[in-house]
Write the structure tokens for this entry.
Amino acid sequence: MNIIEAISGRRSVRRFTSRPISDGDLHTILCAGMSGPSAVNARPWSFIVVRDRDTLSRMADGNGAAAQPLKGAALGIMVLGDMTRAFERAPDYWVIDGSIAAQNMILAAHGLGIGSVWLGTWPQKEKIDAQRRLFELPESAVPHSIIAFGYPDESQKDLPARGGYEEGRVHFEKWTRKD
């Protein structure tokens, strides 16, 4: 699959089969996450990989109703900002760096035939606090997002395309109002 096909063909998958994800594919996904750019190459991310069903369920409950697909996933990966590594002059770039890592993992999984759904945590304090308690995180480790990964069940295999090019959202040389 070429990169354009991966980007345009990716869908959020919320129902998964019970098929496990191999250690090799997990390594590929994590490597993709760590291969993205970051401010001054600070690489201010860490990841918690969870396969345990009970922990996945507790993660989902801590992140709210939208995170319930995590309960049926083969695994979840929490993306964390490691504030001890954040760019000193602009530490908030960690959020962007974490987003890039998450997107790379999602695209890598798609390329491997593995479905995923991104589940936001940052900046919602109650979700951050729930994940901090669950994983006994130090203050320097800030939950960014959780990604549920698994092989799509039959009802998820032919999800319609979303998004794509929208002429009205593109401006050349200056902002122009397009009604």
